[in-house]
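Re: your question from the hallway

Yes, I did run it. Sequences:
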Amino acid sequence: KAGVTQTPRYLIKTRGQQVTLSCSPISGHRSVSWYQQTPGQGLQFLFEYFSETQRNKGNFPGRFSGRQFSNSRSEMNVSTLELGDSALYLCASSSHTWTGGADTQYFGPGTRLTVL
Amino acid sequence: DQQVKQNSPSLSVQEGRISILNCDYTNSMFDYFLWYKKYPAEGPTFLISISSIKDKNEDGRFTVFLNKSAKHLSLHIVPSQPGDSAVYFCAASESNTGNQFYFGTGTSLTVIP
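Structure:
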C-alpha cells in the first residue's frame, strides 16, 4: 500500500497570507490527524477528521482549520499567517473506527512551512 | 501543560549495548501508547505500541514496558545499531476520545559504532 502523502513538501509564505496543505491517507484509512512540530515543542495536535467530520480539536486559534473529503483526503488551512506558524506540519492516518479505541497512526513526510 | 514528558533530550550508547528511552505521563486516563522514530526531514515512523492491559510488548529488538502505577513507559532497544540513531517520540492517547495523541518532546539517540 502507498503511504501517507503530503503536498507540497515545502512552502514559503509571508505574514498575512494564507496557506492550504494537502494530505492523502493510506488507502482504506478514514481517520486523518494533523500535527504541528516546532523545535523544542514536539508534536502538537491540531485536529482529527473521520468520515468528513471533525472529531477532535487541539488548542490552536481559529486561524487553523481543516476539512476532509469523501475520499478521506484532507486539507488544512492557515489564514493570516504569523511568523510563529513556521513549522513542520504532519498528517497522520489510521484505520481507526468511529467507536473503536485509539489506533496506530502512520505519518506522512510533512510540509515544511516558512513564514517570512 | 505537557501531559507527556521525555526528560532526556539526548542519549548516547555504544553499538551492541542496550538503549533505554524513558517517557512519563500525567493523565491516568491514557490507555494506549506509541513509540515513533524520526529522521530529519521525514515524518515519524511507527515502531511499537502498547495498551494499558499489558505491561510489556516486544517486537524484534524493540521492547516497550508500561508501569501504570508510576505513569511511566520505556523503550528498550537491544542490541543498539548505528542505524537506530534518530529522535524517538513517545505518544499517549485516551482511547475513548478518539485518535488524539499527546507527544513528548523527543529524545535524540546516538549509537556510536
